[in-house]
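Worked Example 4.2. Read the sequence first, then its structure tokens.
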Amino acid sequence: MGRLDRQAQKHGGAEADEWDVVDVEPGHALQGCDEGWLEPIDYGALGGRDQFVEGAAMDCALATIVFDTIYAYDAGKFPNGGPKTVADFWDVKKFPGPRALRKSPRPHSRWP
């Protein structure tokens, strides 16, 4: 059971809140492990780290959501083939038309 002392202090609590499971972003999971407010996971009790998607099993957290960014285009507008790379995606002369991205920059920060 991890103790979230910072959470309790933030809300004016004298003692730490205790939670069995908490949903946090990956950065907070790494921070919580480094600072000791999340406890290491016993992956031996779960069949080993290799039972999970590559990169999902962190020392003190387990990713529960996997997503990706896809490229899509209207094949009717580009009969000879559409954009294949991020550079192509932004080449508005070679591939004219509007672009659409998620408003948050986070999913776009690791494009190839």
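Now turn to a second chain, presented in exactly the same format:
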Amino acid sequence: MIGNRLKTLRKEKGYSINELAAKAEVSKSYISYIERGIQQNPSLHVLAKLANSLETTVEELLYQRNNGIDDEWISIINRGIEQGVTKRELIQYLDFMKYLKQKELINESKSIKFRTAIHRSL
């Protein structure tokens, strides 16, 4: 969706809606409408102004090239990078979450076996 892409690019540049509006000479309410999905079909003229202000192309503004990863995931990862999270720390976190899920599955399996054993003994 163009709104999410616009918002992501704007934030990557560090612009507020007001700053982008002034730079692109597009009203801040119109930019907000695009970002929120209220305006889903902005004119090519407006898209060109926004793309130019964001130092990108209309094509890049319209098309996501992130292999199906949605903007929210990209935003979360960017936030982690901004907060100083290293690749190694992220990998350790993912490994830890995998461990917890496996532990949870093992405990769930044990619980099911225990309940089955009790049921059979009755």
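Notes for the reader: The CA atoms of residues 56 and 83 lie 26 Å apart. The chain has a mean pLDDT of 87.
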